[in-house]
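ok so I'm stuck.
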Amino acid sequence: MSNEIVTDVVIVGAGPVGLFAVFELGLLDIKCHLVDILDRPGGQCTELYPEKPIYDIPGFPMITGQGLVENLMQQIAPFGPEFHFGRMVTSLARLEDGSFRLTTDADETFLCKAVGCTGATSSARRRPRSTRCAGWLPRARSTC
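replied:
not stuck anymore, here's the structure
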């Protein structure tokens, strides 16, 4: 039997774009859970390029990938996002009421109003177009 989690939004990918989505949604009092295949936040910025200087982040003439992720984690802390690391999305279905059911390989089931897919290699992005319509947050690309 799966563990069923009800939330407003599930964000697939805990890299910089996913973390910033938590901030923007938090300002609107929208609760988020993040699912990521990696074992920590930051995506490619922390996994592949933690010390790489980044020059195109507003307000920072230069910041490292790790520094960016640390700042984002501090920025989203007041919104209390819940992280599910080391998990891969295995299915995504749109329900009759317009909400979504997303499951992971850890036997978790999320019921949510919207799904954001921000991961660079996210498996949820490869779902059929019919499941990627209304209710999804816009895709974005990280700078790392």
